[in-house]
TrEMBL record:
Keywords: Cell membrane, Membrane, Transmembrane, Transmembrane helix, Transport. It comes from Aerophobetes bacterium. One of its GO terms (cellular component) is plasma membrane. It is a multi-pass membrane protein. GO terms for molecular function: transmembrane transporter activity. It holds the Pfam family MFS_3. This is Major facilitator superfamily (MFS) profile domain-containing protein.
Length: 415
């Protein structure tokens, strides 16, 4: 059944989903302000440093924001299936509101970037509980036939927030200073937690309250999540595809940021412009797929998107100016939105509710371990090879992988 226009927007009439949706608009807007604040700290600490030698610092910022996923996500998934998902979202919002205020204290006023890494690690440790709780919570708020619409609107929310937040953040950091971006992010977390407080639902519909020591159950339940992925062919293929995509993303995310801010010398305002282009592509992709994508096979959509992403990576390798780069970034945003909506919806549809938190948490580990590994590799490759050559390598690798899957499927159909 197609996700018709009325379904796409009628889901906002659901008061519980609307409260979550509004909270995320504000919170994600603030996150993008803080992201630009981190770029401002990066530029401050690499003033007078060459592009190649500045890559490791940017790499470290991304690395310490991803490392908590590998440490805490297994625990998070197990507890999310037992705790109230609503309360988990509220507590982590307020916790991050306090932590984010420490970033300017250490990154600007103490001048020791190592303390910033610690705070980033703590903030994203809290996010490890928030993200899978939110993904697992949405199906508790909407009907099954509204899932695609709800996921599309959630993705659109994230992209609108990214466009507005990064554009505003680029201006704020460049003209008004870095500290203000973190203060506004803290306020946004408070507003998000307050909005989610209006969600009226009694815990998880099938939440478990075992008296067993939960710490002893962490390993068992995490293994169950991985086992479910391994035994379900669709989710296993999804996990492999997402691993490959996040490997490419880990490299590209670091290197595009360095290319724009240092390579082209455009700073935070230039990065804001690129983010607007990326966000516009993602919003359009979300709308198009949300309206017309329900009749398409989701695994085919993901593989087709990987082929298109490979072509776009090749265009980034040839970027000589900001205008050329903006076109490639827009197309990548369009493709990425479609892939992520298809992947998220596929996983929600075929995973039982009592396993959903663990499966989402397990997928988070898989994709973020890939992202983390290749973020680190970006710091190594970026100091030894031209950025254009690395982008060409990403494009060729995606084309070979996705093209191979397409060829194998074609042969199986003929056979």
């Amino acid at each position: 059944m197609l996700c018709r226009r009325e379904h796409l927007f009628n889901v906002l009439k659901n008061r519980n989903f609307f409260a979550l949706w509004i909270g995320q608009i504000v919170s994600q807007f603030g996150d993008r302000l803080a992201q630009m604040g981190l770029v401002g700290i990066y530029l401050t600490h690499t003033r007078g440093v060459s592009v190649a030698n500045s890559v490791p610092l940017m790499r470290n910022l991304f690395f310490f924001s991803t490392l908590p996923v590998l440490i805490f996500t297994p625990v998070a998934g197990v507890y999310i299936d037992r705790w109230s998902r609503r309360n988990t979202l509220i507590v982590t919002d307020f916790l991050r509101a306090g932590l984010v205020l420490l970033i300017p204290l250490f990154g600007i006023y103490s001048g020791n970037i190592k303390y910033v890494y610690v705070v980033i690690f703590l903030i994203f440790s809290a996010t490890c509980f928030f993200t899978p709780a939110k993904s697992a919570f949405i199906p508790n708020l909407v009907k099954k036939e509204e899932l695609l619409a709800a996921n599309s609107l959630s993705n659109i929310t994230r992209m609108i927030a990214m466009i507005g937040g990064v554009a505003a953040g680029g201006f704020i950091v460049a003209r008004l200073g870095t500290t203000l971006s973190f203060i506004l992010d803290s306020i946004s977390f408070v507003i998000s937690g307050w909005a989610i407080g209006f969600v009226q639902i009694k815990g998880n519909p099938i939440a478990r309250n075992d008296s067993t020591d939960l710490f002893k159950k962490v390993g068992e339940d995490f293994i169950q999540g991985i086992s479910f992925i391994r035994k379900n062919r669709e989710i296993l293929l999804l996990a492999i595809n997402l691993f490959i995509l996040m490997a490419a993303s880990g490299l590209a995310y670091v290197l595009v940021t360095v290319l724009i801010t240092k390579g082209l010398g455009l700073g935070t305002e230039g990065l804001g412009t690129a983010a607007v282009s990326l966000g516009a592509g993602m919003i359009l992709g979300s709308l198009v797929y949300g309206q017309f994508g329900a009749s398409l096979k989701k695994n085919s959509v993901i593989v087709g998107g990987m082929l298109a992403a490979g072509i776009c990576a090749l265009t980034l390798g040839g970027s000589k100016s900001i205008s050329y780069l903006l076109v490639g970034v827009f197309l990548i945003g369009f493709i990425a939105a479609i892939i992520m909506i298809a992947a998220n919806t596929l996983c929600q549809e075929i995973t039982p509710d009592n396993f959903r938190g663990r499966v989402f948490a397990s997928l988070e580990i898989i994709i973020n371990s890939s992202f983390l590994l290749f973020v680190w590799m970006a710091g190594v490759l970026g100091t030894h090879y031209p950025l254009s050559l690395i982008f060409y390598g990403i494009g060729v690798a995606l084309l070979i992988y996705a093209g191979g899957i397409t060829l194998i499927r074609g042969v199986k159909r003929v056979a």
